[in-house]
Design goal:
mainly alpha, MetI-like, transport, ABC transporter permease, membrane, cell membrane
Amino acid sequence: MSVRTLKGNGRWWALAGCLLWLAFTFFPLYWVAITSFKTPLGVVGGPTYIPFVDFQPSLSAWRELLSGERGQFYNTFIASTIIGLSASLIATAVGSMAAYALVRFTFRVKLLSALLFVVVAFGGYLICYNIFRIGQALSLIYAFLAALSLAVASSRLRLPGPVLGNNDIVFWFVSQRMFPPIVAAFALFLMYTEMGKIGLKLVDTYVGLTFAYIAFSLPIVIWLMRDFFEALPIEVEEAAMVDNVPSWRIFIGIVLPMSKPGLIATFMITLAFVWNEFLFALFLTHSKWQTLPILVAGQNSQRGDEWWAISAAALVAIIPMVIMAGILSRFMRSGLLLGAIK
């Protein structure tokens, strides 16, 4: 058997493996799609696979969903779109600036200043709340401002102890994702509730949920964009510095256009996280700003899980992400090719 024949057989085996994996990946989506067009009897009566052959398609689940019988579909879809896009854009913008600063500038944070921040924050809250009898919300604000001011002021002093560098700061950002989400969601709910007592309503509001998602997404944005910025050639920035170009103009006019594929990829990943997030929306919303995962989870009744309704709602939540991933992936590929040509 010749080498050419072996290569040809290898390609066919590779193609067969890819097709098998494609079928394995797309079958759950196909099953959700056909289930959304089944009647209740068609779902509980046993597995059927091919429309018009095994079962007669019905639009009853879609009619109930779009008519509002299964919840405020249109309001939920609009809320998910607004919150997802705005939180992803803000997180990508802020996280990109932080990642660029951690790549191009050297930071030295004294560990003692960080410990001072923690001690003053917790101790100040306990003193304000238990001794001075100040409300919990105001105690949180006063303690945070005092701790931040003392930490910044002490960092300028010659304090003993180890000094944290850029890699330590990046690890601190990424470590925020190691905590169980239920802990952060419950803590945010308690804090938002206390803020509402002083007139700053954050529960079931656009601002409250968007801020939570921005904080939730910043670690992954900083981690991803840091790698993209490290791969950029620094010679272009150095040439601009020779011409006395300000740092902010270098970042906006040179760095961001060069890292366009990375920004698009990071935005896509962030939007996928925010769009599919369930726990924060469950804790921090009641009705007005509920998102699509809450709507999908609510498609049941006293009779149990109604899979035809759940499938229709899940398909609505999946389709926008599939469409946007296809559109943005084309821009991302074109940007990568353009960078390779240059």
